[in-house]
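Incident review: delayed structure delivery

Summary: a single-chain prediction request sat in the queue longer than the usual turnaround. Root cause was a stuck worker, restarted by the on-call engineer. No data loss occurred. The affected request and its eventual output are reproduced below so the record is complete for anyone auditing the incident later.

Affected input:
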Amino acid sequence: MPKIIKKYGKTALVLALILVLVAIYGLIPLARAASLTKERDTLSDSRPSTIAKHTVIFQATTAVPLSGHVIVDLPDGFTTPAGDYTDVAIYFDANDPPTTECLMAAACDGTHCCVTITPATDLINITLKSGAGITAGHYVKVVIGDGVAASGWEDITNPTVGVYDVDITTQNAAAGGLDTGKAKVAIVAGVEVTATVAETLSFTITNVAAASCPETIGGTDKSDDASHDADTVSFGTLTPETFYFSCQSLAIVTNAPTGYTCTVQETDQLKTAGATEFPDGDCNNGTCTETGVGLWTTTTEGGFGYCMDDVTGNGALTTDASDDAGTGATDWLVANQCDDATPNFKIFAEKAIDSPDTEAVMKSYTPASDTTYMGYKINALYAQAAGDYSTTTIFVATPTY
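Output delivered after worker restart:
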């Protein structure tokens, strides 16, 4: 009898174990959604409380059939405004990232996808177009917004600093679960970078060798004379009714946002110690003045004047223009400059009688690095009194910050 009881007791124990296993198995779901792979969400801007474009990319494990769904669920904290089909784009193909776009429309049809945006839950639900779906193993890209304020696209505002999960789901047409996945985004404070660029101005006057001084100025070039340097223009002894010329380089470099102006004056007319004056002249029969250019080709017209020749930049051209391109310029047009076949000239304004009048010889409307030659020209008439004549030219460069 004890053996029989023992036998039935073992049988009961086995049956009980089977029942327990069946019960446990019943608690396990018979079907579970697969996992997406390679999920990522790239933000156009990761700073807190800043609008940003979201570019969500993942690889589908299970095919998404026609009229199926791709859902991007942003976590609490992100601010999703109301939007429409123009605010979301979707791409899917075998590439990573995909480039084949499903065009959006207000409603799904044979050629378009459509989207529902739910600001209260930060949910972006895209329905795939009829006639196409997502192939298993293909990549999907969802672009939300464009990251530009007030651009017409609805943009999502970032939450406070932290790391957040972005839930991604694919569903079939009946809203049945297919694949799920998560992407993470980090919201971090931006790093402020500061720097100061100091205002700069460099103005250099240097001598120009005769080989570089344009011969078209006309006459005998005195640039290589021993007494000629950056501070002195020496013409030596003049032969009446004979042109002499010489060159100096004016180089201006400045980072002034609205450029600079450089003006010139002479302290007085060329004079001797006894105050005998050398006339400024007027070029060919009054064709040039302190403010207007003119030809000077006749040696019977005496005087002392100058021409300008841009080497780098448009310093001379823009003296009477409205911009750095030379718009509206009249005086130092390319055809009027020292190196032209028929250069034009001006005479110097005189500080002694014209102050504070000056004449611009270089100008820029933006930061510049300009080099311009000034060609000095002189001619004495036979009636000019003998003596040693001198004057000083005054250059003033003024940047505008």
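Verification: The chain is about 5% helix and 35% strand.
Action items: add queue-age alerting; document worker restart procedure.
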